[in-house]
Amino acid sequence: MATLKFSNLLGFIKQINSDDIHPPVAYVLNRLTFDVLGTWKAVQFVNGTLNAAAIAWFHRRTIDKIATRERLALTFVLATAVTNEMWGTGLRWNAYFNPVFLVLYTVALSKRPSVTVRAAVLAIGTVFLFHTSYLTIVAIPILWGTFLARSLHYLRPPCAARIALIFFAAIIACVPQLYVLATVHLPVYATSHSWSVWDSTVQSISTLALGTAVFPIDYVPALFLLTLTAAFVSSIKNILHDKYFSMLFGGTLLGLILLIITRLGIEGRNAVFLYPIALTLIVLAISRSITWIRRPAMVSLVLFQIVSVYGFVFHHDTAKGSFNTPFAQTMREISNTRSACQGRTYIFTHDPVLTYLMQKEDENVSSPYAPSDAKTFSVRERDCIVIVRTYRGMIPPNVLAQYGNQLKPESFRKAQTINLGYDRFHTIKAWLGNEPFPDYYIAIEAYDVLHDASVSDWYFLSNAQ
Prior knowledge:
By secondary structure, the protein is of the alpha/beta class. The protein has 20 helices and seven strands.
């Protein structure tokens, strides 16, 4: 893609609004940052830094509101809140939505500067958030509800009128993108996503309590949840009398309810923007529980955070499958297979990340994410076919079956299979998802072409449905 300049900015935004299911701001910011820094790794570093800075800001404004003996625990937990960095270092909307929301939430909690100035900041932030993610529908009641609850004592009729006008102006500014949501994005999203209330509830609660840097059904998360539940029961009467805690708890609970009602919680990552607030509540609940509960609960919290950091650093056993997938090792293995092939090598994958990596290396790749005009292409004797199998993701099962059924034994011979990244939770995932789940994150199947043949392009197969 060429450097994004003002002259083609509107065209870029129009393309996103017509092709995607998310608003354009994150894409534009990613592209502009890439144009300045030159690599996507640098963009990821900048995005991760933004998220870390937002958590540091939230910590700085929160630390004075809690008891001295609770501050070390809160500092440790927020410093190891790797779930936010897991999503914040990516190239999705989360990288911008999450830190901006956290800063705005801190503003809403504050009593300075003036009520009108804070309302103006929230209004500008609301417009930014809505053009970054439609999750703003959940964020608006949290931000403005918290702001009004904190400012109610200072509101007078003239001030209330100004705030209403500011809020109305923010809504008006969102109307064009709201139209895109109603006419383009929502119909596409509705047909490609599940709307289960149960799944939305489980995913949202799991993310708020455990994050996504660990797989939730494991020994350490189970121990942590057990001690955390005991701590909440022990301290609930005490902490609800704390006005600051009540404010945090009310905002988080409202967010959880809205995620469930709107079904947006079906994807656990959609609750991550509330995770630093939930961690603060967890620390306060444990710190204020009775001694015989507090000590084991604090030990389990520390252990849980260490396991989370380990999973994040080593891309191991997190709840985000693509984060665990060994893409670099996969590319090396494919390169070795191509080098050993006597003819040309053709690579088939339905994974969007691998598709991008293959295209970057100028490989012959066939994928639902690699547009092609050809329905089929010809392969010659001594050429090689490499099929990279991963979890099907959004690919319908019938399309996935077509992908694997076109290599006939009379023309193709499997030479080897390379499995990478064992998933020790695959049985649990299969049970939860009620469908087969691969044992390994990556399975590379290499085939020798025995006779000249034609093979259907996966982009054509996907779009023919």
